[in-house]
Amino acid sequence: MLDKTLTQLAAALKSGEFSSRELTSHYLQKIEKADSKINSFITVTAEQALNQAEAADKARAAGNAGLLTGIPLALKDIFCTRDVKTSCGSKMLDNFIAPYDATVVEKLNSAGTISLGKTNMDEFAMGSSNENSYYGAVKNPWDSTAVPGGSSGGSAAAVAAGLVPAAMGTDTGGSIRQPAAFCGITGLKPTYGRVSRYGIIAYASSLDQAGPMARSASDCAHLMNVIAGHDVRDSTSVARGVPDYTETLNAPLSGLKIGLPKEYFGDGLDPEVEKAVRDAVSVYESLGATVREVSLPHTHYAIPAYYVIAPAEASSNLSRYDGVRFGHRCNEPVDLVDLYMRSRAEGFGEEVKRRILIGTHTLSEGFFDAYYTKAQKVRRLIRQDFLDAFEDVDVLMGPASPTPAFDLGAKKDPVSMYLQDIYTIAVNLAGIPGISVPAGFAGGRPVGLQILGTHFAEAQLLNVAHQYQQATDWHLQLPAIAEEHA
Question: Model confidence over 381-399: pLDDT tens digits?
Fold first, then answer.
């Protein structure tokens, strides 16, 4: 089963090669035996999963099965899931049992998928390495001394290790694409507003977006068919029709115009990563695409703008965790101020505290216009850079990260960690979609090719990614741990 993609598993279930209960039991056993080595799950919902699997088998026997009925998945522990702990990787929410399902979870349940559990993540999605989790760091399945990327590192590692065929992640500044690149899987960040944020614990509300993580673009297309669409409960959800993302997967690429942003191939880019990316671009040329250099002149302002806007929104969103209504509460507070101060000091980790302080400062009187307002103006310029580029090319390509996965504990300086997101952050500021696909190795660790499109161009990105995966086999390669206990 481990060598099958989600799409192939769906076909096998339909043909009766195995039942959903057998498939679910297989993955639960794999998690039990192997996850101690990578720490990709916070919560495993075995009993619930087996009950869902039995229901899926009954639906299939009655002729009521959809394409994904009976397929096991995992959810990043940022999606509220009814009657299941939803911690966001934080001590603050270690005791929080969600009373409702996020819209994404509702849609997956309606499609008949099975949740195996909740995956590990950087606390409140703040991080690029999955080392900021209250539940311990996640390890990269390709090399246990390396990080898996973040903040959706648990989802990426679980898919790469063969513990689950697909998982849901969220992306605020690269948190789907960067861990997908580090773990050698496919990860799609949709256009902002394409997938509902209702029931997703907020980090930065104008940047957060949910998306699928799987081994192939085809798998991600099937998942997008389920999770995309308007939601009246989410004021940022876009009322726009949803195409069949699988319909154009096999469209030929002849005439495709690819742009290579010159800012993505400068200082700081690992030579082996650059070679892998340029080799991937050469494959596209062999498939009939044309390539030209383009410029995104405000790229170098993306990180400073992001680290003003995102912490500002985080400081507002995280103010609700006060020890009163839900979440961690300190013992025996002497008064209300003590309750607030000690509950937040005990409940939040260092990186979260750092970003709350930065955000509170930039929103304070006397600094709001100097920092937050100015950062929003820069954001508009970054967005316009992309719009200008897409007037001349269909998609942009470049590395997902300047380096392959770095060693656990290697980035002790917060700024050096923030710089890892140089190629992904601008995409969230602009609200456009992006996908990372496996494109080789550097020093034995996976390299991701990032493909970007204009707003609501997910179908085109999936087509471009799928055609590359038809011509290469990087996405089919598995780490040794995926074959253990098979």
Answer: 999 999 999 999 999 999 9
